[in-house]
Amino acid sequence: MDPHSLKKLNALRRERQAAILLTDLGDGRDRVIGEGDTVAGALGDAVARAFRSGKSGVAEIDGRDFFLNVHLPAPRLVVIGAVHISQALAPMAKIAGFDLTIIDPRTAFASPERFPEMALHAEWPDEALARQPLDAYTALAALTHDPKIDDPALRAAFEAECFYIGALGSRKTHATRVERLIDAGVPGEALERIDAPIGLDIGAATPAEIAVAVLGAVIRALRTRGLQGGSVPA
Questions:
Q1: Most-buried pick from 95, 151, 153, 156 (CB within 10 A)?
Q2: 3-class DSSP state for residue 75?
């Protein structure tokens, strides 16, 4: 690998930014492509697909073979609220490969007994997120129904451009939430990103079913980043 490519790749990985090491298998030359870099034509399409899927592989472009070695940050799921849904969601998210963090200042809920072997922070979101900031490879699910807890986390998610932002609550609850956030200075286009009522529309009723719906929505958002309409390509 070219030393310059190695330096750039390591810098992007340290900053939790996605990168592809692109190698021309014909002459061995390589370069690093960061997510968002402009790559034209069919190669650009292959790069975009690789960033979405996270899978490395060979692409044949105009008679030349390229190896795309994909380096994605480990996807994170930050859950605001140590509630029953979170208890069901935590093991599911771990199986799906997400680094999970649960934040809730209510110590009666945020206890190691309820969430064994989980990254659990019994403190206010703004305090916890100051130490471990959100980023573009983080999903945020706000589940407490308490504006004092959920709203600061939602504002932080907008600022960090999290790939998924969801909030529990009915449409009426969400309308009230939107009014609060507008009053707090959040722009309207950011508010449109909130998935509310949270999760895929599968008719979920129990905490476990809602957890399945939330995780499904998170995975769909991760795999359709940058696509219009959010449809997974065939």
A1: 153
A2: coil
Q: Which residues, 6 or more positions from 229, have their beta carbon under 8 angstroms from its beta carbon?
A: none
Instruction: Record the tokens describing residue 108, joined without a space.
Output: 């009666």
Residues 6+ apart with CB under 8 A from 131: none
In a domain, 194, yes or no: yes
The per-residue pLDDT for 231 is 53
- Domain range enclosing 143: 76-223
pLDDT digits (tens, 9 = 90+) for 78-108: 999 999 999 999 999 999 999 999 999 999 9
Whether the CB-CB separation of 221 and 139 falls below 8 Å is answered with yes
Q: How many Cβ atoms from other residues are within 10 Å of residue 144's Cβ?
A: 25
Backbone angles phi, psi at 219, to 5 degrees: -65, -45
The stretch 129-133 carries a mean pLDDT of 94
The reply to whether the predicted model has a pTM over 0.70 is yes
Last residue of one domain, picked from the residues 44, 71, 98: 71
Q: How many residues does the chain have?
A: 234
Domain containing 111 — which CATH number? 3.40.50.720
pLDDT tens readout for residues 15-27: 888 899 999 999 9
| 32 and 122 share one domain | no
